[in-house]
Amino acid sequence: MDLSVVVPTLNGRDRLGACLDALATHAPEAEVIVANGPSADGTTGMVRDRDDVDVLVEISDRTVNVARNAGIEVATGDAVALVDFDNRIGEEWPGAVRAGLADAAAVTGPVTPAEPSRRPEAGGNGEQVSADGERVSADEEAGDGSGDDAADEPPVGPERRTIAGRDVTYFAGGNVAFRRETLRDIDGFDEYLRTGGARDAAHRLARMGHEIAWREALGVTKELPSPTAADGGRSAHEWGWKYRALAYRLLKNYGVRPTVMARVGSHAATDAVDAAADVVRGESTPSRWAANGRDVLVGLASGGSDGLVARGRDRSPARNPNGISERADRAVAKYDRREREE
Question: Any residues with CB less than 8 A from the CB of 225 and at least 6 apart, and which?
Answer without folding.
Answer: 86, 116, 121, 128, 233, 234
